[in-house]
Design brief:
Elements (H helix, E strand, L loop, with lengths): L5 H5 L4 H14 L5 E2 L11 H12 L12 H15 L8 E4 L1 H13 L5 E6 L4 H8 L3 E6 L10 H7 L4 E7 L11 H12 L5 E5 L15 H4 L7 E6 L12 E4 L2 H12 L7 H12 L5 H19 L15 E2 L4 H6 L6 H12 L1 E2 L1 E2 L9 E4 L4 H15 L3
Parallel strand pairs: 1-10, 3-4, 3-5, 5-6, 6-7
Antiparallel strand pairs: 2-8, 7-8, 9-12, 11-12
This protein binds pyridoxal-5'-phosphate.
Length: 395
């Protein structure tokens, strides 16, 4: 047998990708499985974005670019931060990467050593803890349950900060809960962070535009501009422009940190695909009118899904303010079902008996929940809910 590294043995494959692969495999066998596992919009990439990429191929823009991204895309990102977030950056403070995933990976590799701690509020995006482990550091999980609307409180943060804390990760709107921090809530977290200058902050704004909260989007820098010298903003085009396959994400932050992340990227992937960079530039500079119809559709599905989920026996779902995920609590349904002892069992049960694929909440650090992606048509969603309802019953 081949002896593998301790590093790779510390982590697990992405559970969301695994559920999606399993649903696709069952479908290929002829099973009528409805996959609600994947985290990608069901819309097509808008036409003007595709056209820009096709033009780039025809023009021969098919060679290496600068490791940290083309000047054109960097300018588009700088323009986006100014326009949408009121934030000012220079090109040396921007790094373009192969998806938001690589942005966080580069950050972890550039910042963390053995013994360093990273505070991750749970429920969390599945990749944060594993990417921290890959960097030899220690994830420190703060649980924010359904009773606190999946958002951490300042006292919880204060209690878990130590001398070894290097980074806090904030993801709002959140995958998997759709929870959104208000500007006031971020300001309260900022009060705590001000007392601990050794802690950097990563704000993952990937779902910034997929939002229907009462107030406009804010990240921690909007709430606390004085934290800019230790905050890194992560974002990307994957979700907002239905561009998951193009693999373009970007980061903005202090120059020395961005330079270190660029060094990691220069010795791993080099530049993101030249053509995809042109497409991302067209997305960020082009007409932003393509976003609203997608968000409207997500909101409609959200409303229907939440109301229907709350009628299923043993299921409780909070309305959320963004993303395309619902994160219902199935703990009462789990307790009431023979042979089902936890959320993984429940996911298995729903897959086998209702042919609906969901992701167990424990993958996101929240047992008893399941994550449903509603990036699928209303008709398919209704069909999935009919099946779950039939299996578990209604209240
Ligand atoms: N951040 C969050 C919170 C996400 O949910 C995702 C995708 O699921 C990403 C980052 C990474 O996106 P990508 O690497 O596809 O750009």
């Amino acid at each position: 047998t081949i002896r593998l590294s301790g590093r790779v043995n510390r982590i697990k494959p992405s559970p969301t990708l695994a559920v999606d692969a399993r649903a696709k495999a069952l479908k290929a066998q002829g099973k009528d499985v409805i996959g609600l596992g994947a985290g990608e919009p069901d819309f097509d990439t808008p036409e003007h974005i595709k056209e820009a990429a096709i033009r780039a191929i025809r023009d021969g823009f098919t060679k290496y670019t600068a490791v940290d991204g083309t000047p054109g895309l960097k300018q588009a990102v700088i323009g986006k931060f100014k326009r949408d977030n009121g934030l000012d950056y220079t090109p040396e403070e921007i790094l373009i990467s192969v998806g938001g995933k690589q942005s966080f990976f580069n950050l972890a590799q550039a910042l963390l050593d053995n013994g360093d701690e990273v505070i991750i509020p749970a429920p969390y995006w599945v990749s944060y803890p594993d990417m921290v482990l890959l960097a030899d550091a220690t994830p420190v999980i703060i649980s924010a349950g359904i009773d606190q609307a999946f958002k951490i409180r300042p006292e919880q943060l204060e209690r878990r900060i130590t001398r070894n804390t290097r980074l806090l990760v904030i993801n709002s709107p959140s995958n998997p809960t759709g929870a959104v921090y208000t500007r006031a809530e971020l300001a309260a977290l900022g009060e705590v962070l001000r007392k601990h200058p050794q802690v950097l902050i990563a704000t993952d704004d990937m779902y910034e535009h997929i939002l229907w909260a009462n107030e406009p989007f804010s990240n921690i820098l909007n709430a606390c501009p004085d934290l800019k010298d230790r905050t890194i903003v992560l974002n990307g085009v994957s979700k907002v422009y239905a561009m998951t396959g193009w693999r373009i994400g970007y980061a903005a932050g202090p120059k020395p940190l961005i330079a270190a992340m660029k060094k990691i990227q220069s010795q791993s992937t080099s530049n993101p695909t030249s053509i995809a960079q042109v497409a991302a530039e067209a997305a960020l500079n082009g007409d932003q009118g393509c976003i609203a119809p997608m968000v409207r559709a997500f909101k409609e599905r959200h409303d229907r899904l939440v109301s229907r989920l709350n009628k299923i026996r043993g299921v409780r779902c909070l309305p959320s303010e963004g993303t395309f995920y619902a994160f219902p609590d199935f703990s009462r349904a789990i307790a009431a079902t023979d042979g089902v002892n936890n959320d993984s069992d429940m996911a298995e049960y729903l897959l086998n008996k209702a042919e609906v694929a969901l992701v167990p909440g424990s993958a996101f650090g929240a047992e008893g929940h399941l994550r449903l992606s509603y990036a699928t048509s209303m008709q398919i969603l209704d069909k999935a809910l009919d099946r779950i309802e039939k299996l578990l019953g209604t209240t």
